[in-house]
Amino acid sequence: MERAVTDIADIPHILVVDDDTRLRKLLSRYLGENGFRVTTAESAEQARRKFEGLSFDLAVLDVMMPGEDGTELTRSIRQAKDLSPAHQDLPILLLTARAEPEDRIDGLEAGADDYLPKP
């Protein structure tokens, strides 16, 4: 049986940013096993470096990270600060242990497309 050759550019590319190594690896493995190309970063600073040379179809950002948090990074992406304007329309999913309504509102107002609690 012949396998179809897929151009890597046709595979959806997801950026996962989380300072929790275990969760970052778990998400990466799960998404990879389900047909996605995954790039990971452990901080907003590292994510910015990934944005310099790669394009993504979705970003999954942890809200509570040391230094610049996911909400601040989302706001920066939407305003195209220090990033290519091409990233302004990138779908962003905030993933967090914080489930208070105020936190969700803050994340959505920053420009996130959705806000989900961590498992």
What does this entry look like structurally?
With 119 residues, this protein is α/β, with parallel strands linked by helices. The chain has a single domain, classed as Rossmann fold (3-Layer(aba) Sandwich). It is built from four helices and five strands; from the N terminus they run βαβαβαβαβ. A five-stranded parallel β-sheet has the order 2-1-3-4-5, with helices on both faces. Strand 4, helix 4 and strand 5 form a beta-alpha-beta unit. The radius of gyration is 15 Å and the shape is globular. The N and C termini lie far apart (39 Å).
List SSEs in N-to-C order: EHEHEHEHE
Q: In percent, how much strand structure appears in the residues? A: 15-25%
Task: Please report the total strand number as a whole number.
Answer: 5
The global form is: globular
CATH topology: Rossmann fold
Task: Summarize this entry quickly.
By secondary structure, this protein is α/β, with parallel strands linked by helices. The protein has helices at residues 21-33, 44-53, 70-78, 101-110, and strands spanning 13-17, 37-41, 58-62, 92-96, 114-117.
List the helices and strands and how they pair.
Blueprint: E1 13-17, H1 21-33, E2 37-41, H2 44-53, E3 58-62, H3 70-78, E4 92-96, H4 101-110, E5 114-117
Parallel strand pairs: 1-2, 1-3, 3-4, 4-5
Which key terms come to mind for this protein?
single chain; Rossmann fold; 5-stranded parallel sheet; alpha/beta; 5 strands; 119 residues
